[in-house]
């Protein structure tokens, strides 16, 4: 789930585009903070709901809730793969009109954009809920559950946090590297998304169906 979330080129491209705008580091940091805060709030709220629900599986197997979420996630990822194959837009990508406003956007507006983009991205919701379900189904205390979800979030966000760190440490030296990364991701966005969506979509769909069959 961490890899499936992290290997989404569109989010990395957005951060790299914001970094290239005036006051890019501040604005890109605000965008990343917006996405991260929403995901942490999702973990707190739904972690509490899952913890007080029947999420545990039988005989150490996955719970029905997690299995259903994995099936949904697998289907969404396979739909993304088909859309990329047909050269259609990604459902999780912010609207193009938003992406054209980075130069004029303020840090506060990008904070809100990061939060809103996360809230309206269907695959991110299912990734997050699936991770919460897996963690809630383990024999953890509430504090251990939160620590596990915090670790999941930080690692899943690593590829959009890393450019901020590189730019903050060495803005001039990293500018060429980040530009090259942005160009490469933009050029191969379709191929990367297609491959990741097909591989993880097939994996999650198989795991979800396998889990549901245990209850049939």
Round the Cα radius of gyration to an integer and report it: 18 Å
The helix-and-strand class reads mainly alpha
Number of strands: 0
Q: How many domains comprise the coordinates?
A: 1
End-to-end Cα distance, whole Å, is 25 Å
What does the largest sheet look like?
none
Strand content: under 5%
Shape, per Cα inertia axes: globular
The helix-strand sequence is HHHHHHHHHH
Q: Averaging pLDDT over every residue, what do you get?
A: 84
Number of helices: 10
Low-confidence stretches: none
Produce the secondary structure layout.
Layout: H1 2-6, H2 9-19, H3 24-51, H4 64-85, H5 96-99, H6 107-119, H7 122-136, H8 142-156, H9 158-169, H10 171-213
What can you tell me about this protein's structure?
By secondary structure, the protein is mainly α. The chain has one domain (2-213). 78% of the residues lie in helices and 0% in strands. It has ten helices and no strands. It has helices at 2-6, 9-19, 24-51, 64-85, 96-99, 107-119, 122-136, 142-156, 158-169, 171-213. Helix 2 (9-19) runs parallel beside helix 9 (158-169).
């Amino acid at each position: 789930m961490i890899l499936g979330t992290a290997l989404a080129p569109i989010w990395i491209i957005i951060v790299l585009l914001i970094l290239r705008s005036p006051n890019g580091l501040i604005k890109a940091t605000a965008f990343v903070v917006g996405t991260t805060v929403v995901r942490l709030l999702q973990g707190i709220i739904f972690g509490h709901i899952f913890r007080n629900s029947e999420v545990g599986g039988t005989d150490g197997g996955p719970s029905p809730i997690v299995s259903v979420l994995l099936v949904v996630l697998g289907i969404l990822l396979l739909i993304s793969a088909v859309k990329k194959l047909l050269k259609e837009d990604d459902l999780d990508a912010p609207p193009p009109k938003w992406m054209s406003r980075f130069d004029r956007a303020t840090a506060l507006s990008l904070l809100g954009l990061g939060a809103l983009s996360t809230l309206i991205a269907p695959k991110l919701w299912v990734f997050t809920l699936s991770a919460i379900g897996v963690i809630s189904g383990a024999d953890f205390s509430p504090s251990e559950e939160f620590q596990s979800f915090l670790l999941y979030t930080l690692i899943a966000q690593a590829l959009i946090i890393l450019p901020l760190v590189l730019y903050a440490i060495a803005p001039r030296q990293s500018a060429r590297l980040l530009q090259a990364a942005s160009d490469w991701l933009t050029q191969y966005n379709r191929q990367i998304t297609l491959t990741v969506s097909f591989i993880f979509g097939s994996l999650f769909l198989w795991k979800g169906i396998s889990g549901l069959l245990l209850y049939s």
